[in-house]
Amino acid sequence: MAIFDIVVANGTVLTMNQENAVINKGYLGIVGDSISQIGPLSEGVPDAKMAIDAKGGLILPGLINGHTHAAMTLFRGLADDLPLMEWLNNYIFPVESKMDGDFVYRGTMLACAEMILSGTTTFCDMYLFEDEVARAAKDAGMRSIVGEVLYDFDSPNYGSLENGFKYTETLIKKWASDPLISIAVEPHALFTCSPDLLQRADALAKKYQVPLIIHLAETLNEIEEVKNRYGVSPVDHLISLGLAGPHLIADHCVHLDDREIALLAGHGVKAVHMPESNMKLASGVSPVPKLLDAEMTVGIGTDGCASNNNLDLFTEMDMAAKLHKLDNMDPTVLDAPTVLKMATIESARALDLDTITGSLEPGKKADVIILDTDKPHLTPMYNPFSHVVYAARGNDVSHSIIHGRLVMEDRRLLTLDLQEVMEKAQEKSREVMDWIAK
Amino acid sequence: MAIFDIVVANGTVLTMNQENAVINKGYLGIVGDSISQIGPLSEGVPDAKMAIDAKGGLILPGLINGHTHAAMTLFRGLADDLPLMEWLNNYIFPVESKMDGDFVYRGTMLACAEMILSGTTTFCDMYLFEDEVARAAKDAGMRSIVGEVLYDFDSPNYGSLENGFKYTETLIKKWASDPLISIAVEPHALFTCSPDLLQRADALAKKYQVPLIIHLAETLNEIEEVKNRYGVSPVDHLISLGLAGPHLIADHCVHLDDREIALLAGHGVKAVHMPESNMKLASGVSPVPKLLDAEMTVGIGTDGCASNNNLDLFTEMDMAAKLHKLDNMDPTVLDAPTVLKMATIESARALDLDTITGSLEPGKKADVIILDTDKPHLTPMYNPFSHVVYAARGNDVSHSIIHGRLVMEDRRLLTLDLQEVMEKAQEKSREVMDWIAK
Question: Are A331 and A402 in a shared domain?
């Protein structure tokens, strides 16, 4: 009788556990939705209902995209290289005002296809029509945290803010027992949300013990606007409203001084870093090495496809590692193992999912990817961490397992009809062109 | 009777010509080694001995890697995240002292495989045993400019400098009439080459009318060392020695002030930009927008795999576009078409190959790639330039034609035995590990 439901064998296992253990010629055995055993492959491949040969490649925890707006795949390349306000006012806001739930579902399915194909197994989303995002993630077999964006103006989804709170509460209840989907409360930012909104959002998050997620200190404009309106910096404003705490995930964290970093760290706030978006929008550089020195948890994310323009966490890692070396004029900053942790166990910790995913350890859910290293750009391999961060690309991932389910085999997606997903995306893009033309 | 030897049809042609013309549903006809016709596909695919279906993807000029050290693929990931001198003294210099011609040939073959697979059709190399680099490029069917590195110390290849000049002159004569390979004179840098060496190198380049290529103003250490030794900045030193001119290609150009930029531009010096290497080694940011404003020709390169660690010009473009937006805190800087020009026609111009390659125009040599866009991360497509720079990756390239010869078909390499290339690379990596261990 087979011991395991699935065994992934014959690869170098990067566990990303506390000791950062690496097992050469190892295997990983899965029972049901969970990792059961990991070890060296001493006496042949253990018995399993399904055996997957890693062919000497790398066996890694699935990558975790700490912050994105998945459905914005449908806006990728619609408008680039523009001043922020022109981009928002002439392109993004007009098209978002026309969107509906089906648009978001289709855009998210497209994003899920791209994410699975590039090794991501979990993503955290902030957008509109998030029940459709949850449905798409579920259909694609991806783990995700989703939250409806809340702000002071009316939403194309829920209308007035009052309905936004109701919508969020309904989401929380609807998905409460789902093994893959969980919900967060997600006020947009300090300059788009009144103090009252923020405190109600915080209360709602605390009531249901779900994360509170917000964009924080992303741009200099935001800093100025918050200071003009409230007389204090975003971090001080956040703290004065009682929002800072271990339940808070602060996305971006670009413009922070040392005092503010100490305050956020002291309150146990977690950060998610989006280097490509911060570069493309010319927002600035998050002081990630200082956040890490202050012992803050820092995950990594891609942001949406309108400001990146891809969901590939491998290039995000590469960019992060290189950006902070440059920013500190020090080539030892953010070494490869540190950056891979940010995209796996630290992203999981930021999202409060670290007991579930983010590393390969018995008892955790089986979120596992295989990186095919039998390629010229990954040959020879002196150091697997270096290759993952500086040389590999999303499309080097050959297999993906999420929650014990094989969702990609030899780059073939098993949970969705890729042709249909792309055709529907094309249809939606024609609608977008019509909206823009008007 | 067929009009063309090869026709590439049914794709969007990005010509990268002077007008930056884009032809939707176009074709490109090749006769012999050259482009014969380009046009819209009005009445079916023209007659050809070989018809290649671009399947609605993008038809582009092959990318041009303006500066690399190809054989350093064999050192990729050997040592990262280290201070520069520790990296050089403990890893790179010791292994380079043990290298031989076969090592360089094998490393360059590996590099050619990676470059063809990621859409590069031409590269400019600076390293040791460059006759072997030329031989590898020729075997792989790639266009290249190669030059033996010259410096004040003995070389593992040619021994004393005197032999270095002889070796270079022999290279120039040997490859003079080759359709794919050309030779440059390549003194390493101003702090590793005496004024006498530099002037002799310059004279040699001028005698044979070949490019003179040098690393310039790459690091702050270099600036300091040149100032200490000669009392002037690298640019002033270069000019005082009479090296500045349209035959000079200056790699990196990181630490330049406005006066120096004006001087280089005034002398017609060309630049090659390596953003990923400059970031990873924490060298600094080249003032590329200012170089372009001064009407300097600026190409793009990857540098070697020990400081990048990949040869993918697609991610290099992405990084360049994002880095300069951040560095200038302006999202309109280095837009996608500008960056794609840098990796095609401007790199060609920098290398003095712009009458031969770098754009799709009748009469030019047929260096052509197809980008397969039938993928979720490239669907839908509002703007092909945006997708090429911000979303595509090297492994989205499906076909490559160099000098009229199909070298990659549906990602299968036709000019080299990939399995053998990777096996030989593995063998060489075991030698490297032995060298390091001693």
Answer: no
* Residue-averaged pLDDT of chain B: 97
Of A70, A49, A56, the C-alpha closest to A6 is A49
User: Measured in whole angstroms, how far is the alpha carbon of residue A218 from the centre of its chain?
Assistant: 17
CATH code of B55's domain: 2.30.40.10
Residue range B265-283, pLDDT digits in tens: 999 999 999 999 999 999 9
| Nearest-by-Cβ selection for A379 from B110, B311, B390 | B110
In a domain, B320, yes or no: yes
Instruction: Report the C-alpha gap between B9 and A60 in whole angstroms.
Output: 41
Residue B402 touches partner A, C-beta closer than 8 Å: no
Among B327, B350, B373, residue at a domain's last position: B350
Residue B213 lies in a domain: yes
A85 pLDDT more than 90: no
pLDDT for residue A1: 61
Size of interface A-B (CB pairs under 8 A): 206
Mean pLDDT on A101-106: 98
Of B347, B252, B348, nearest to B304 (Cα)?
B252
Residue A208's CB is within 10 A of a number of other CB atoms, namely: 15
pLDDT tens for A226-245 read 999 999 999 999 999 999 99
- Chain A residues closer than 8 Å to B289 by CB: none
Q: A341 to chain B: which residues are within 8 Å by CB?
A: none
Indicate the angle between helix axes A101-117 and A418-437, nearest 10 degrees: 130
Q: Hey, which residues 249-288 in chain B have their CB within 8 Å of chain A? A: 276, 278-285
Q: How many domains does chain B have?
A: 2
Cβ separation of B376 and A285 shorter than 8 Å?
no
Beta-carbon separation of B379 and A318 below 8 A: no
Cβ–Cβ of B426/A319 closer than 8 Å? no
Q: Spell out, as residue ranges, where chain B has pLDDT lower than 50.
A: none
Query: Which chain A residue has its CA at the smallest distance from B87's CA?
Result: A331
Q: Is residue B399, in this structure, part of any structural domain at all?
A: yes
